[in-house]
């Protein structure tokens, strides 16, 4: 089983090398790493080339934002399973993809996801938030449930059936796609209750109040267009984040 991992990179010179290295270090052998670089203004392209490995393929051309880049990666992926590693994040250990592949050994499984921790920008060993997803059940969607998108691995045919990320959304196209899939899913999903992914704090969706407001507006659009709830769904989705901060900060 081949796994395609997609990294969208733009102006991430300081961190993209660690993201690439975390994929290069994976013990699972059948991996394709697609790095989609959007003609950055800094030294991102050079950093990618320095960190490159023999399982990596680079696409470097202008794009229309992160979701356009992710769509491009999915279109070019040749793996049986597709997942993502963002350019400022990294896989938690060298056995992550082997763990995911083992869950896909059941041919009925379409989706695999796990826990995620947010770590400090300055010290990635310091955990700020712990996102523990829990198993999927359709009724949980209206209560704001969603797996952490970077932990979600899907069979490639899922994208063929359900389409691409809506690039008119600038922040919440991942939530929209997740609702589109899980509200109609007929295949099995597997929740791995382990931290397999580490994300640096400070993403675009919570950078400032205008971004937070835009995120909430796009989340509400996703909820309505996928018919999974209403304002209470948005409220519960946001409230669920509070518990992620209640885990005592720790060294990862």
Automatic annotation (TrEMBL):
PANTHER family tied to this protein: GLYCOSYLTRANSFERASE, GLYCOSYLTRANSFERASE 2-LIKE DOMAIN-CONTAINING PROTEIN
Organism listed in the record: Celeribacter marinus
Q: Residue ranges of the Glycosyltransferase 2-like domain?
A: 4-132
Q: What is this protein called?
A: Putative glycosyltransferase
InterPro entries recorded: Glyco_trans_2-like (IPR001173), Glycosyltransf_2 (IPR050834), Nucleotide-diphossugar_trans (IPR029044)
A Gene Ontology molecular function term of the record = transferase activity
Query: What superkingdom does the record give?
Result: Bacteria
Q: Mind listing the UniProt keywords for this protein, alphabetically?
A: Transferase
One matching Pfam family: Glycos_transf_2
């Amino acid at each position: 089983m081949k796994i395609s991992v997609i990294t969208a990179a733009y102006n991430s010179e300081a961190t993209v090398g660690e993201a690439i290295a975390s994929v290069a270090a994976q013990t699972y052998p059948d991996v394709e790493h697609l790095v989609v670089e959007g003609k950055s203004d800094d030294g991102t392209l050079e950093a990618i080339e320095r960190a490159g490995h023999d399982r990596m393929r680079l696409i470097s051309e202008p794009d229309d934002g992160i979701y356009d880049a992710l769509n491009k990666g999915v279109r070019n992926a040749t793996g049986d399973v597709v997942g993502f590693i963002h350019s400022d994040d990294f896989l938690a250990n060298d056995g992550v993809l082997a763990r995911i592949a083992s869950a896909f050994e059941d041919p009925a499984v379409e989706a695999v996801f796990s826990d995620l921790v947010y770590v400090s920008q300055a010290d990635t060993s310091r955990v700020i938030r712990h996102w523990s997803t829990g198993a999927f059940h359709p009724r949980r969607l209206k209560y704001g449930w969603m797996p952490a998108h970077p932990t979600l691995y899907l069979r490639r045919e899922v994208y063929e059936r359900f389409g691409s990320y809506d690039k008119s959304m600038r922040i919440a196209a991942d939530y929209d796609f997740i609702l589109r899939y899980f509200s109609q899913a007929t295949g099995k999903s597997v929740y791995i209750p382990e931290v397999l992914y580490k994300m640096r704090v400070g993403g675009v969706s919570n950078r400032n109040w205008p971004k937070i407001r835009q995120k909430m507006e796009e989340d509400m659009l996703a909820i309505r267009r996928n018919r999974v709830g209403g304002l209470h769904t948005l409220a519960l989705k946001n409230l669920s984040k509070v518990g992620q901060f209640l885990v005592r900060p720790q060294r990862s």
